[in-house]
Amino acid sequence: xxxxxxRNTPKVKMxxxxxxxxxxxxxxxxxRMKQVVAECRKLGLPILPCTTIIENETHAMAAAAELxxxxxxxxxxxxxxFGPEGPLTIFAREFGQPFMLCAAAEESRSSLVDGRGxxxxxxxxxxxxxxxxxxxPYIPPVPTSLPPQxxxxxxxFVDVARVLLGLRxxxxxxxxxxxxxxxxxxAPIKPLYDLGIEVMExxxxxxxxxxxxxxGEERQIKAIARDMAAELGTGNRYPxxxxxxAQFELALTTFFEQNLGSREFGVFANKCxxxxxxxxxxVPCYVNSRLATRGIPVACEVDIxxxxxxxxxxxxxxxxxxxxxxxxxxxxxxxxxDLRGAQREDLFMGFHCGNTPSCCLxxxxxxxxxxxxxxxxxxxQTPNIxxxxxxxxxxxxxxxxxxxxxxxxxxxxxYVADGHVLxxxxxxxxxxxxxxxxxxxxxxxxxxxxxxxxxxxAVAFRxxxxxxxxxxxxxxxxxxxxxxxAGSLYPSENPFPA
Length: 498
Description:
By secondary structure, this protein is α/β, with parallel strands linked by helices.
């Protein structure tokens, strides 16, 4: 399932503006830019070319106004020749949206006199001027390239810009304090404000009153319950719980619509145990999975940074995402025919009670009861208040695990790693899968543990590491980690073999 069928996501409208230094032929930028537009259209990439070529400050202001009028909310600044670093950065500042810098490579030895653009040199000056104005552009790995490569870089930046725009318009809703002894889910909110994210914190009592407030909307509740039954099919093992779950879903979606306020997008981070079950009479996991399927992530255990991370994974992948515990090791007696580049020591099981979207689980998933909570709350009893999880094996395929986290001293740090959910039976309960990420064993020790990341990780169901890494760097976060191959040591790693 892709984001085309989902809500709660920005649509990137990519602009393209050319710049030209006045001592170079403006036609060089204009003609090269036309080729880039043509290559973008070959890729099926909608592009909004700016008719104004920027040579001076007046052009910069006119170009910003033109692209705003066209509805652009991100832009590629294209150096068709050396380019004027002052006006182009003035444009970037005035336009005020995510931007990338890219430049034209020389095409042929036959054009190295009258047709030489020197954009390779101009990129250096443009970068310096961005630093002087405290602007943070995206610069591709190969900044100066021919039109097909430039178009491919712009297509990548569309995905990066989507993440940035989503965060700019985001509001996090939380309900309740974290569960006891879950200090990992409690983090300072100031770094979220630094990113421009709004935070609205509420209590468990607010949630309960909200649930009660929609009790009279019987027609809507019944319609939601029917939709749940259709989705679950033969996996509807506790049909008597659907009415309560439907009422809870209506409460959350109603609250969402009424409280976005100044923001376009929202996510939830909600208390889900242990008091929840005794008050509401069910586990909310299945509702969380349904909202995530529609593009509204709901993080467990009041994990605000987990909700933001899950949303970023969703925007980067254009697919529903989930939040899982980096949970347990994989016994050697579980046979796994293909480790997808990982070693046995790199494997782990990603697990949560039942919040993963049904489209990300294997056929045969169903609504069950939460075993761990049942042991705690209903020992030796038929499951009742602990029913409501969506359980099944996570479908095999490519994944990215990702986390954005605020530290105790209000810094932001992040990690990202590509891997696979392996085609193997976990032989356990919950929404669960066996993850194989190359070089994860050392990464787990020297990054996740040592850098004090929480046990929750966001999961994108498509390789999205490249997009997320670039997006996080554009947010100004320097402390970004990815797995290192054998022979490349982490700073704290002992260089002497055991």
